[in-house]
From TrEMBL:
Keyword Coiled coil appears in the UniProt entry: no
PANTHER family the UniProt entry points to: PHOSPHOMANNOMUTASE (PTHR43771)
Domain (Alpha-D-phosphohexomutase C-terminal): residue spans on this chain: 376-449
Molecular function terms, GO-annotated: intramolecular phosphotransferase activity; metal ion binding
Entry-linked NCBIfam families: PRK09542.1 (NF007088)
Cofactor requirements of the protein: Mg(2+)
Protein name: Phosphomannomutase/phosphoglucomutase
CDD domains: PMM_PGM (cd03089)
Source organism: Streptomyces griseoviridis
Entry similarity comment: Belongs to the phosphohexose mutase family.
Domain Alpha-D-phosphohexomutase alpha/beta/alpha: 8-133, 156-256, 266-371
SUPFAM superfamilies: Phosphoglucomutase, C-terminal domain, Phosphoglucomutase, first 3 domains
Length: 454
């Protein structure tokens, strides 16, 4: 029997506990399989600060080189820095990170040349099947001419590319607290922000894959408490938190209050539309706020609604020729960044918008934050399909109610909407609700939860 790797090969990446679920020998097989499936004769790799990352990354490189591919290792980097290298060098890439997961986890995010995603339907299934077969039968025979393994530092090039896309040279001086969560933001922020009119107050910039201060997941309110307090203590203009691999950014205003990722999406969309002559397609997933398509249309753009998940966003970005896309999870995608997600570029846009006018961030984002949202609420259920059917039956045919099943079930009325989606990996249903006021949102949220939980 070949190994079963379905527990660690997810919809978009490889993710599991090291060494219990995977190790360097398996990473080597993944490297060989990646080259076999992509047909690449050269690739680029990078890794985060987790203790297991350098060894896993080098093992992957050995496997890739054994199949004839020349490997360029860029070493310590953020995930969006790896996407930069994949785009700028026009090479398939592999990033070793488990993002915001705890220290014992690690993973691989893979892409084709130009940062095009590799997911279940775009090569990841074939990579898994090859690695499973080889783990049982032994690695394939090396090719006659193996590839080489070399290194290249891309941090300065990456930073220069980002700064070329957002002009911060003429903004007013800003004081910004940055919480890197001991993740890769501590590596990239000093170079990207260098020379800009910013006073940076660093928090947890020391690279430490054991995450001694808090998990590097800023979407969990518990993990931004330190940032919120520090922004208030410092009298800073804003705070920015990055996740472990620094591809997502989360923003708090001058009071330490969180700025919703939907408001950031709307703000950046307005700026990107202005930069593109007041027209262009903006992608947003179906659980971002109503504010996003409203702002896009007000600024001359065309909003396109899509399923949740980066592979869907990236595919729709390419299909529609979109200039920007945003998700509720604080992933932001840019045409000028090979349709890939980069939290750092979104952060630069927020800094430029704030520094380009005199008011505080809270006033600036109020224009883009028009509704009251529940946030994502997860419920453990025995029968996802049955509960979704019960919710659909409860609302079907009701006056003024529309239903759609683009991703889970979305129920909409004139003053509110909610979406319920099943998790792909756990027995959960995920609820997001929004309304024009707090009381309506609470009522809709509680009605939906009662149906979800039976």
């Amino acid at each position: 029997m070949a190994a079963d790797l379905t527990r660690i090969v997810k919809a978009y990446d490889v993710r599991g506990v090291v060494p219990d679920q995977w190790d360097e020998s398996l990473a080597e097989l993944f490297g060989a399989a990646f080259v076999q499936v992509t047909g690449a004769d050269a690739i680029v790799t990078g890794h985060d600060m987790r203790p297991s990352s350098p060894g896993l990354s080098r093992a992957f490189a050995r496997g890739a080189a054994a199949r004839g591919a020349d490997v360029t290792e860029i070493g310590l980097c953020s995930t969006d820095q790896l996407y930069y290298a994949s785009g700028a060098l026009d090479l398939p890439g592999a990033m070793f990170t488990a993002s915001h997961n705890p220290a014992q986890y690690n993973g691989i995010k893979m892409c084709r040349a130009g940062a095009a995603p590799v997911g279940q339907d775009t090569g990841l299934t074939e990579i898994r099947e090859l690695a499973e077969r080889w783990s049982d039968t032994g690695a394939p025979e090396p090719v006659a001419t193996p590839g080489t393994i070399g290194s290249r530092d891309t941090l300065e090039e990456y930073a220069a590319h980002l700064r070329s896309l957002v002009d911060l040279t003429s903004v007013r001086p800003l004081k910004v607290v940055v919480d890197a969560g001991n993740g890769m933001g501590g590596h990239t922020v000093p170079t990207v922000f260098a020379g800009l009119p910013l006073t940076v107050v660093p928090m947890y910039f020391e690279l430490d894959g054991t995450f001694p201060h808090h998990e590097a997941n800023p979407l969990d309110p518990a993990n931004i408490v330190d940032l919120q307090r520090r922004v208030r203590e410092e009298g800073a203009d804003l705070g920015i938190a990055f996740d472990g691999d620094a591809d997502r950014c989360f923003v708090v205003d001058e009071h330490g209050d969180p700025v919703s990722p939907s408001a950031v999406t709307a703000l950046v969309a307005a700026r990107e539309l202005a930069r593109n002559g007041g027209h262009g397609v903006i992608i947003h997933n179906l659980i971002t706020s109503w504010s996003v398509p409203e702002v896009v249309e007000e600024h001359g753009g065309t909003p396109v609604r899509t399923r949740v998940g980066h592979s869907f966003i990236k595919a729709e970005m390419a299909r529609a020729g979109a200039i920007f896309g945003g998700e509720h999870s604080a992933h932001y995608y840019f045409k000028d960044f090979w349709n890939a997600d980069t939290g750092m570029l979104a952060a630069l846009h927020v800094l430029a918008a704030l520094g380009g006018q005199d008011g505080p961030l809270s006033a600036l984002v109020a224009e883009y934050d028009r509704y009251v949202g529940s946030g994502e609420i997860n419920s453990t259920v025995d029968d996802q399909t049955g509960r979704l059917a019960a919710i659909k039956a409860a609302y079907q045919g009701a006056d003024g109610i529309t239903l759609d099943e683009l991703d889970g079930l979305t129920v909409s009325a004139a003053d509110w909407w909610f979406n319920v989606r099943p998790s792909n990996t756990e027995p959960l249903l995920r609820l997001n609700a929004e309304a024009r006021d707090e009381a309506t949102m609470a009522k809709v949220r509680d009605e939906a939860l009662a149906l979800i939980r039976g």
